[in-house]
Amino acid sequence: MLAVTAIVRPERVMFVQDALYAKGFCALSKTTISGRGKERGIRVGEVIYEELTKVMLYMVIEDDEKDVVVKTIMSSAMTGDKGNPGDGKIFISPVYEAYTISTQTKSL
C-alpha cells in the first residue's frame, strides 16, 4: 500500500477529484492548508504574500495503482499548457498497515 499526498491549487481541486473519481478512486481526504514552495511567496504590487492557500489531498492506494493516480493528479492539477510554479507537489510514502475502526479489522 502507498499513501499519496498531493498539494494542489484550491481552484484545481474539483478537477483533480473528478478525474480521480472517473478512474475509480473515490476514497480521499482533503484539508485546506497554507504554506509556500521554493518560490517563497509572491509579490502583488507592494504586498508580499509569503504563504498561499493550497489544498492537501490524501489517499491510500495499492502499489500497482501509483502510476495511474500520479498521472491523473498531475494532468488535472496542472494550470496552463506547460504548468506554472505553485501548481503543487505529490508525495508517495509506504503504508505498512491500515485498520478499519468500526470493524476492528485490517483493511486493504
The multimeric state of the shown protein is single chain
Q: Overall 3D geometry?
A: elongated
Terminal Cα span? 8 Å
Contiguous low-pLDDT stretches (5 residues minimum) are none
Mean pLDDT: 91
Class per helix and strand makeup: alpha+beta
Strand order of the largest sheet: 2-5-1-6
Biggest sheet details? 4 strands, antiparallel
Helix residue percentage = 10-25%
Gyration radius (Cα, Å) is 16 Å
Percent strand: 35-45%
Order of helices and strands: EHEEEEHEEE
Q: How many beta-strand elements?
A: 8
Protein model, in words:
With 108 residues, the chain is α+β, with helices and mostly antiparallel strands. Helices cover 20% and strands 38% of the residues. The chain contains 2 helices and 8 strands, in the order E-H-E-E-E-E-H-E-E-E. The chain has a 4-stranded antiparallel sheet, covered by helices on one side. It is elongated.
